[in-house]
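FAQ: What does the model actually see?

It sees only this:
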Amino acid sequence: MPQIVFDQVSKSYPIYESPGDRLKELLTPRGFKFHKDFWALRDVSFEVQHGETFCLVGENGSGKSTSLQIIAGILQPTSGKVEVQGRVSALLELGAGFNPEFTGRDNVYLNASILGFSTREIDRRFRQIEEFAEIGGFIDQPVKTYSSGMVVRLAFAVAIHVDPEVLLVDEALAVGDIYFRQRCLRKVHEMRSRGVTIVFVSHAAGDVKAIGDRAMWLDQGQVVDIGPPDRIIARYLAAMVEKDSRYLTHKHAVRAAPAGPVEAPEVIEGVPNVDHRYGDGRAQVIGIAVYNEHGQRIETLEPEAKIIVRISVRALGDVALPIVGFMMRNHLGIDFAGTNTAREGHELPPLRAGDTLTVDFHLELPELYPASFSFSPAIADGTLLGYTMCDWIDNAVALQMSPPDGPVYGYLHLPCRVAVNARLSPQEEPVAEQSLG
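And it is asked to produce this:
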């Protein structure tokens, strides 16, 4: 039989526009409502098996803490059925269950007695609790004098030393220092091995994957997915990246539109070669060329030369977050190197239909194997973590690399200094040192 069962559980909170509406509702006949219902949970169903570590992930306000409070018995569901077997110990909101006027010692006895422990039983456990919390003399000071980290230390120490069969942890470890977090996570692993059922809420993807057997993703009070932590975390993080990209796109799109099309001061037109081209067509690469450091167009690449890759683009529609870049390929068709404006930390302004933009990429070439290298330019809309390709041109321009002074082993020669030192006596100075380019 599962240790925790949620069967079609929903939880709503009444939201009143003013305190007077609450009074009106009390005085009017039953059936008249002066509030709106906020559903923190809607038809949530899951089971947690004995000895399982079950993790809850989701954005703030998705219903994670409400779920834990229902498991702990602090809240009652509006509808649905909840079953919890065994003694429950909860580490929920920071300092929950602690009286700030009482000392740490008094709060240990208070919390443990609420869980059904006698004074004698608490006496036997107190030294272990005190040693794990490591708050020194503050154990006999009022909790209101504690830092947030000290409150968590004491609360966690109590929670794990009252022999729980179910342990609930709600993001409380986020305020702890790295030393204490590591100790807590080791303790969680130890409790797992003893068969304690753990329900763990965290925004730390690494912690969820490290300790979770299964995970549940909540969004706006509803279950999105339940399954292995790796899969759930991957889906959740991908959704958060997509949401952030949409936000940035909207933020840039609402900027005031310029009076007319923006024309770059210097536009190059002409793409020497198109092996393959794809994108949604909201913007196009209209030109690409490679120049030396003096601004002269070049036909070959020289080892250790400074070059400029110039790319011009034109918008055919709105591009809120333009990214311009290129990929450099070798003669085998292998993507050798590449970059873009976002990677280099350069934010481009939004583009409207008809706008043109020219971007110069200043590069210093290493000594490369003397072969042909191509440049594939592109323009996209979005961020590094999530974007839509507007236009990509495979191998738009190809240049031959001139042979370097010496042989190149592999694909490139790394800058290198060689120092040869003989084994000398302390009185002698090193005399055999060479530097090779």
